[in-house]
């Protein structure tokens, strides 16, 4: 139990630390940050339940006012911005990434993590992000989708990095990949 809590806290801290990487804010108010890499890694390494818990902990800390989002943002105001859909989308993104790596049957950890990150950390995240952006900016879904296209190359790169990092982690410290411990996949 303590180990699970420590892992959840560690990945919430990783997501926060990735917010220190300078973000690039686009003209419509949505920053490109490294924090989604942490979300992808949380699901890919911890599995869906603990990955979701790490994202929930992070979002709770932000809601309480800690300036943990890229650019030092925090507080309830961040939930009324064009980024709200993306921020809340971290929860299902981590869940789908984690579920994919746990259930896909792909025995290559890096490939499972990379594909899971594309599915959860890009496709699922964009469903929430685009919907939130459309509402906040009073745009159509098509217009918000077009605006979101600027994020795709960076997010696909983060999915590749997730796969590479999980593969290295699986080789040097296989016991740290939660879903591998349970089912014995290598």
Secondary-structure element pattern, one letter each = HEEHHHHHHH
- Low-pLDDT runs of 5+ residues are none
**Could you tell me the strand content as a percent range?**
under 5%
Number of domains: 1
Largest sheet: 2 strands, antiparallel
| The CATH C-level class name | Mainly Alpha
Protein name: Biotin transporter
Subcellular location: Cell membrane
Transmembrane segments: 6-30, 51-70, 76-101, 113-137, 149-172
Membrane topology: Multi-pass membrane protein
Map the helices and strands.
Blueprint: H1 2-18, E1 24-25, E2 31-32, H2 35-46, H3 48-63, H4 84-103, H5 109-137, H6 141-148, H7 152-172, H8 178-183
Antiparallel strand pairs: 1-2
InterPro entries: BioY (IPR003784)
Membrane topology: Multi-pass membrane protein
Transmembrane segments: 6-30, 51-70, 76-101, 113-137, 149-172
Descriptors for this entry?
69% helix
Characterise the protein shown here.
The chain is mainly α and 186 residues long. It has a single domain, classed as Arp2/3 complex 21 kDa subunit ARPC3, CATH 1.10.1760.20. The protein contains 8 helices and 2 strands. The chain has helices at 2-18, 35-46, 48-63, 84-103, 109-137, 141-148, 152-172, 178-183, and strands at residues 24-25, 31-32. Strand 1 and strand 2 form a beta hairpin. Helix 2 (35-46) runs parallel beside helix 7 (152-172), helix 4 (84-103) runs antiparallel to helix 5 (109-137) and helix 5 packs antiparallel against helix 7. The longest helix has 29 residues, at 109-137. It is globular and about 45 Å long. The protein starts with a helix and ends with a helix. InterPro entries: BioY. The chain crosses the membrane at residues 6-30, 51-70, 76-101, 113-137, 149-172. Belongs to the BioY family.
